[in-house]
Design brief:
Layout: E1 10-14, H1 19-30, E2 34-39, H2 42-52, E3 56-60, H3 66-80, E4 85-88, H4 104-132, E5 135-140, H5 153-172, E6 178-185, H6 201-211, H7 220-231, E7 242-245
Parallel strand pairs: 1-2, 1-4, 2-3, 4-5, 5-6, 6-7
Helix pairs in contact: 1-2, 1-7, 3-4, 4-5
């Protein structure tokens, strides 16, 4: 039997309406899992679920809202009876502005979604994993989670926080059958910045020399394959790992 066999398992993926989240939902379904494709954009979530078939359930969620997160988790458990895998993938980009030019509105929104949202979904899912004495959480952090020159201050701070959440959950529940790891995507073809990115010109000018060192532009499916591995039995002794998936960018 393949160590990546997820038959009988249930995966909840946030941000599943597009990009890396959509690729994760498709990859887990291909590995045999039933899944919840969750996104604030229900149209995107429904398209992902339709492409997968009956094994996927689309659910609208605002991960920054505690009540919305509770409804997501309740729906998953009521529908499938359990949650075996959580992929905290939903997130937004900042404007790449320099620290002094970052508005409190941008700071609050990015931190609320990327960091508090990851906490809220994790906190809501953990009791079900604890009841099962088993579960795997894969967080989508970023190269900006371990370096200072990959994004603006809000996004950078939020993804550093996701790395901290990952390590704390891994440590706190290491003896409970629950593992928590994070991937650090490098540049990836997703729509996180929107069709017309509202990036700060001076911030981009400062960041461009660092960003230009990226080796390759990844496809979302390349991130999804790593997430499936980290949630699988093949990674049973990997816990608290912060794994660059960046084509060698961070090695330079």
């Amino acid at each position: 039997m393949s160590s990546n066999n997820f038959d009988g398992k249930v995966a909840v993926i946030t941000g599943a309406g597009s990009g890396i989240g959509r690729a994760m939902a498709v990859a887990f379904a291909a590995a045999g899992a039933k899944g919840v494709a969750a996104d604030i954009d229900i149209t995107g979530a429904e398209k992902t679920a339709a492409d997968i078939g009956s094994a996927a359930l689309p659910v609208a969620v605002d991960i920054s809202d505690e009540a919305s997160v509770a409804r997501l988790v309740d729906t998953a458990v009521e529908t499938f009876g359990r949650i075996d895998v959580l992929c905290n993938n939903a997130g937004i980009m900042d404007t790449m502005a320099l620290p002094a030019d970052t508005s409190i509105e941008v700071w609050d929104r990015v931190l609320r979604i990327n960091l508090t949202g990851t906490f809220l979904v994790t906190r809501a899912v953990l009791p079900h994993m604890l009841k099962q004495a088993a579960g795997a959480i894969v967080n989508t952090a970023s190269e900006a989670g371990v370096r200072g020159g990959a994004a603006g201050i809000a996004y950078t701070a939020s993804k550093h926080g996701v790395v901290g959440i990952t390590r704390n959950v891994a440590w706190a529940h290491a003896n409970d059958g629950i593992r928590c790891n994070a991937i650090l995507p490098g540049p990836t073809l997703t729509g996180i910045a929107g069709p017309t990115p509202n990036w700060d010109a001076e911030g981009i000018t400062r960041l461009r020399p660092i960003l230009s060192l990226a080796q390759n532009i990844a496809q979302p499916e390349q991130m999804a394959d790593v997430a499936v591995f980290l949630a699988s039995d093949a990674a049973a002794f990997i816990n608290g790992a912060i794994l660059p998936v960046d084509g060698g960018w961070s090695a330079g």
